[in-house]
Hints:
Distance between the termini of chain C: 43 Å
CATH topology of chain C: Alpha-Beta Plaits
Structural class of chain A: mainly alpha
Shape of chain C: globular
Structural class of chain C: alpha+beta
Helix content of chain C: 25-40%
Number of helices of chain C: 7
Oligomer: heterotrimer
Strand content of chain C: 15-25%
Number of strands of chain C: 9
Order of helices and strands of chain C: HEHEEHEEHEEHHEHE
Radius of gyration of chain A: 20 Å
Amino acid sequence: xxxxxxxxxxxxxxxxxxxxxxxxxxxxxxxxxxxxxxxxxxxxxxxxxxxxxxxxxxxxxxxxxxxxxxxxxxxxxxxxxxxxxxxxxxxxxxxxxxxxxxxxxxxxxxxxxxxxxxxxxxxxxxxxxxx
Amino acid sequence: xxxxxxxxxxxxxxxxxxxxxxxxxxxxxxxxxxxxxxxxxxxxxxxxxxxxxxxxxxxxxxxxxxxxxxxxxxxxxxxxxxxxxxxxxxxxxxxxxxxxxxxxxxxxxxxxxxxxxxxxxxxxxxxxxxxxxxxxxxxxxxxxxxxxxxxxxxxxxxxxxxxxxxxxxxxxxxxxxxxxxxxxxxxxxxxxxxxxxxxxxxxxxxxxxxxxxxxxxxxxxxxxxxxxxxxxxxxxxxxxxxxxxxxxxxxxxxxxxxxxxxxxxxxxxxxxxxxxxxxxxxxxxxxxxxxxxxxxxxxxxxxxxxxxxxxxxxxxxxxxxxxxxxxxxxxxxxxxxxxxxxxxxxxxxxxxxxxxxxxxxxxxxxxxxxxxxxxxxxxxxxxxxxxxxxxxxxxxxxxxxxxxxxxxxxxx
Amino acid sequence: xxxxxxxxxxxxxxxxxxxxxxxxxxxxxxxxxxxxxxxxxxxxxxxxxxxxxxxxxxxxxxxxxxxxxxxxxxxxxxxxxxxxxxxxxxxxxxxxxxxxxxxxxxxxxxxxxxxxxxxxxxxxxxxxxxxxxxxxxxxxxxxxxxxxxxxxxxxxxxxxxxxxxxxxxxxxxxxxxxxxxxxxxxxxxxxxxxxxxxxxxxxxxxxxxxxxxxxxxxxxxxxxxxxxxxxxxxxxxxxxxxx
Lengths: 131, 412, 243
């Protein structure tokens, strides 16, 4: 019994230390750059954090299969607002430390969006194409 | 009627020979796995497949194995559905091999997908107008139906289910091969494929390929396990194989002669039969000559010996691979006709014979399918009592095999 | 949202500009109405093309180049595996020597064989007749490529980067012409058509085949047109003159 209690205490102690580290680090990511919506996201951040994948997955079928455009949630708009621009070049949202990647790495989520979807905004693509 | 009992014995596992064979097979499977990782990581551009020849060597192996799978079940069906008692002791092996070959073929097919990680999508999204989607159901169902059939053969308490299971499995495999043939038969735009004869052709092919693989495994395992195998039984199988080879040749003739009669199909037939280079050579030399006429001659000899039968079975397998290569790759190599009667040229290979050169990785993946099928068969026959202890010669042979599966069917 | 509006305005301006530059040209379609946000594609439309091969020069590849730019298709210089949504086919009658050239892309069939054969339903036809690949559920089996009578589809043979924002595409999926659904939904016309009217012979006309008042419907009701492999009965939305 005694040994178990000691072990348990050790393990719990370790967890609390690790928890504290994690709390300190957290996922840090750049804030949205676009002021298109008055600096706020299409929904409140807590909802987006919790449900953005459901919104996007639902929307992708509506948009592709039914042709519904201009809906509230759109991956294209995520990229539009959240991609950083450094030295005149758009930084892919899935690059390390960027908006999408930082959280997904933190939460150990592997997503498949960006094997197909553009990781930089269209307006930035056009700007860079004309240079 | 004698009711001599047939004894089935599992292959003794963990012997030196068993381990050697299994190690070799696992090595082949690992090699196939590496080939898959390479092709999937790089993308399909490292294979011989292109936007013009979209299905390549992996599909040749996969289709061969899938077609042979349903054919391997025939031995069991002949014993149960058609009541030929000499075949009954082999029913268990027949069913096991059918499942193993199907698993090998499907493994190859699935690992060549552009997105094999999305296999779950194929299992959850069905377009019921697609023969491919139906095949997903037919293939999955095949495992269930044949698995149950095997159970009914092994477990004496299941005796009542034996006959219905046998009939279900037989009908299922006919529908399954019809479905496989229809993958091509339904391609209306491709001159080499679009034909209803594809379904019966594939059934005839399955009979021949499946039996050839079955004979090879039976001869190999009898030799390795030093279990008696009756010459008479082998000759009977040889004659059956001859019948299936003839049926295959017949449907091949129907396939090409009917196409030759249609003026718009003459160009594609000229390509396959006369001017197709490697495809013409494979068609006449390997498919018809080495894989058709020569084994037919070998098995129909009245004095056919084991070596003749073994050679015939190997030739049927080689001829079968050539046949599927000619159908699949040859059919894609011939240019699609957008403007009948016109000469065309474009940046997308319009009007040109499409080149295809299989790469090593594709072949290794295909051979991995064979290795997987053989591994599953050996492991299955080691875990369960699948193989008869003896398929001996002489008077005893007939006595032994009667009633092997319980109820003597001749009595009905 | 702001970029969408900008692009829409830009497209409208471009189309109007083209009309004023060459007011005599009948081939330039008036800009269609952009669909309201939240509205699905409607079966009351069927988008299609009319291609006059007499105006299509053999050497001209304006439509092909525009497509590659619009859809972000890279040139890896591997002709056997590089994606081509649209290609120029040169046709010659061996009996008479008569020659013509025409662009071939997805024909957006009313009865598309690619949709019939697709095991997962990834190959699909939108309500307004545009045939698309839903790459979210495409498993890369390539059966649609086997079934297509027009060789209209390509397979992404390698990892992709730098995709165009309106044409997501990635390794292991099948892809093809979308008739520029993203432009059509915004009230524009396909990039190939636009390029043909600006840089090419103005051989391509885009419009709604279901609207009897549309220019394309007016033309095909008065002039003889045909479709590639009309004998197959798949009812393509791309019509040609002079083939």
